[in-house]
Amino acid sequence: MAKKTASQKRSKVNAEDMAAQQREISVSEFFSKNRHLLGFDNPKRALLTTIKEAVDNSLDACEEAGIMPEVWVEINQYENREDRFTIKVKDNGPGIVKEQVGRIFGKLLYGSKFHRLKMNRGQQGIGISAAGMYGQLTTGKPVIIISKTRENAPAEYMEVVLDTRHNEPKVTKEKQIEWEAKAGTEVRIDLEGHYQRGKWSPDEYLRQTAMANPHVSLYYKDPDGKVMSWERASDVMPKDPKAIKPHPHGIELGILINMLHQTKSKKLKACLKNDFCRVSDNVSKAICDKAGIYENARPKRIARQEAENLLNAIKETKLMNPPLDCIAPIGERQILAGLQNQVDAEFYEAVTRKPSVYRGNPFLIEAGVAFGGDIPADRSAKLMRFANRVPLLYQSGACVMTQGVQKMNWKLYKVEQPQGALPVGPMMILIHVASPWVPFTSESKEAVACYPELEKEITLALQDIGRKLRIFRNRKNRYKEENRKRKYIEKYIPHIGEALQEILAFSDAEREKLTETLTATLEKTRMQKVS
User: Fold this and answer.
1) Burial of 264 (C-beta count, 10 Å sphere; 0-12/13-18/19+)
2) Within this chain, do residues 195 and 312 fall inside the same structural domain, yes or no?
3) Which of 63, 289, 388, 430 could form a disulfide with 368 if both were Cys (CB 3.0 to 4.6 A apart)?
4) What is the pLDDT of residues 358-399, one digit of tens each?
5) In angstroms, rounded to a whole number, what is the distance separating the alpha carbons of residues 280 and 479?
6) pTM of the entire predicted model
7) Do 57 and 185 belong to one domain?
8) Greatest extent of the chain over all pairs of C-alpha atoms, in Å
């Protein structure tokens, strides 16, 4: 009997059969199978990511409502399970209206921040709902939310699960309860996790959050029952960033076509002026003329080739940079205060660069350095990365901030550095990227993409600090050498007095007076150097 070939063994499937197997995949179903993309790739990181997303939401809500934030974080371990925890995060914010609770905590890609070009901690509307989804997948338990919007009103208690098949929330339980808080939100998520102190721990994340947000009061209870707090160090609320319109130099052809089709303006000239920033009547007319398109043409009727001509005309037109009031930097004084609270060092310096632009998006780089003192000298410098005031603990190697530090020639500034690595010595480095649209490398928001514009500004900020560090170290080395010589001279002053006494036949009293005079002269010289 003839042996069947591989092609004969395969069952035949026609186009109709293949069509029957295809179906739409919801975004939550996709991320439930690819949760590593959101920062839930292992239990240790999942625990941290859940706290991070909840705290970020609380701080954004408080600041947008003009409330000085107070946030309570609590991690409770199950009595009979080492790998199960309950995360509880509570704030004193404005609360959430009942109708929105389910969508915010049980629907991916739902939120108010994605559509606004202004500095926020969150951007995509994924974080907290993804944390709830992870908890639901690993423990089967719903997310519990308590929300109160007015002091004299009862609080709303809701239990929410996410239907991953349809990316829709299901409220499994709701009731009104008495709650001691005047207003605010509390979220509880049960999840599978792993708690460990150290570099990538919730403790470190909250410590760095307090440093970059001195206007926040943070209270924390770890699984061992240890309570820590970081009291508010500043009563000044960060300035409220203003939402801006897209800048013409930051758009691509497909985005431009969509904007032309969705605009409410009836004329192309008005569309360019009203839907973009930094476009005046004269600039709008000049763009239309350069593209060879009638300025009163209907935007929705612009063909693809005309849109491409319009985009080319925009690129050739000189425009002002985007407005900068969409960014709220930490500030040099606050960075210095944060570093001084973290460590006892000999040298502190901070710099806030002038805002710049990448792909039409404004951004601002801040940097701070602490050197010497109690910082360990036998290891690599500690690098703390922040994006919109949020600490970034994972994926350090893929981040433009890390690469910017590594590419610096720190030896020029009297700091040891292995080739292509972080500098070595008693050094702590802080870098902050502030922008209405931070170019993260992935949805987990742990590393910032390596845009040349960002890397250039990071380098300039570090060079500015490096020059001051070099001056400090040179002065310190000079004082050290002078002190060594002075001690050498002090050692031989009595011998000089004795030798002169023998040569000139001084009395003992005259010899002691000469010794005192020489010592006083040396001390006077030292004081003049110090002043």
Assistant:
1) exposed
2) no
3) 430
4) 887 889 999 999 999 999 988 999 999 999 999 999 999 999
5) 59
6) 0.81
7) yes
8) 130
